């Protein structure tokens, strides 16, 4: 049975050294039992081809070795939920910080347009995300064995009484939604308050706002609702489950967004436009009208969320 010995040896080469002899003996005994049963059934000795057919059915040596000694994943299965949650949190924070960095860079007078602004956010976030992904993965992979066992013990200490109440699928709050909202609120607060902060507190040269004086005044009055939106997002991040108070707060924030977007779209020019370089190609009035239409279209998003939250509150009150 030279072919069987070659097969067992090929399997052993794929195994850890301390397990090779024991698993090799077990595997060879298993193969010989199958061959003896087949030979007894046929009543004759097996040919080399029949032996090869039996070994082929068992599969390649690499696959058989993995059945006896499975490859340990880089991140243990019981740590994977914590790993994914940490990854979402860190990437979300990095995205918000990249929005802050690029917006402050833009508002300090850097000479680049909207496309460069978006590309700068994308490239900066990808660079930070690669570093964050590598650092988190290596941290979990190199976590000491006693820490890993401690995680298992803590996982066994949960109490059924601590489980959240039964809720509909929509009550679960997605991390991507939370961090998208946080990035939006941070961006708005920066473009509203950065020029004023630069002028009043930093002692620097006055920085012109992208908004007209009337629009900027409206947005300043609206700022408390943006801060309320930030607090609402942080609350959602902590609880991860919609409740009546949380829905009510989110409804107020979205309703305020609808009102401010409609007001900006209906009251005079919205942006201060530097038309020196492109006035021959685009009409400033046409650009202002396009901005106003864009604001009205954008107001449909929080408007939809207002209706959605009202319907969800009615479901929770039943």
TrEMBL record:
The chain crosses the membrane at residues 85-107, 119-143, 178-196, 216-235, 247-270. The keyword Transmembrane applies. This is Uncharacterized protein. Pfam families: HAAS. Keywords: Membrane, Transmembrane, Transmembrane helix.
């Amino acid at each position: 049975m030279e072919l069987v010995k070659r097969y067992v040896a090929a399997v052993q080469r794929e195994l850890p050294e301390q397990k090779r002899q024991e698993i090799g003996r077990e595997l060879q005994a298993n193969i010989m039992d199958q061959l003896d049963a087949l030979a007894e059934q046929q009543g004759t000795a097996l040919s080399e081809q029949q032996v090869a057919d039996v070994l082929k059915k068992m599969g390649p040596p690499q696959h058989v070795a993995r059945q006896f000694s499975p490859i340990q994943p880089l991140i243990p299965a019981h740590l994977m939920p914590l790993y994914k949650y940490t990854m979402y949190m860190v990437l979300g924070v990095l995205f918000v910080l990249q929005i802050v960095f690029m917006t402050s860079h833009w508002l300090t007078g850097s000479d680049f347009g909207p496309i460069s602004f978006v590309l700068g956010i994308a490239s900066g976030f990808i660079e930070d995300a690669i570093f964050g992904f590598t650092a988190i993965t290596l941290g979990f992979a190199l976590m000491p064995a006693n820490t890993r066992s401690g995680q298992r013990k803590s996982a066994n200490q949960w109490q059924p009484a601590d489980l959240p109440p039964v809720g509909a699928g929509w009550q679960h709050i997605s991390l991507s939604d939370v961090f998208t909202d946080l990035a939006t609120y941070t961006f708005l607060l920066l473009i509203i308050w950065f020029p004023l902060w630069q002028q009043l507190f930093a002692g620097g040269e006055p920085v012109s706002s992208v908004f007209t004086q009337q629009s900027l005044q409206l947005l300043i009055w609206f700022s408390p609702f943006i801060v309320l939106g930030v607090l609402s997002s942080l609350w959602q991040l902590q609880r991860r489950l919609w409740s009546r108070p949380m829905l009510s707060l989110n409804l107020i924030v979205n309703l305020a967004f609808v009102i401010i977007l409609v007001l900006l779209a209906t009251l005079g020019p919205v942006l201060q436009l530097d038309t020196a370089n492109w006035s021959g190609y685009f009409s400033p009035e046409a650009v202002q009208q396009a901005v106003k239409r864009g604001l009205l279209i954008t107001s449909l998003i929080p408007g939809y969320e207002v209706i959605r939250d009202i319907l969800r509150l009615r479901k929770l009150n039943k």
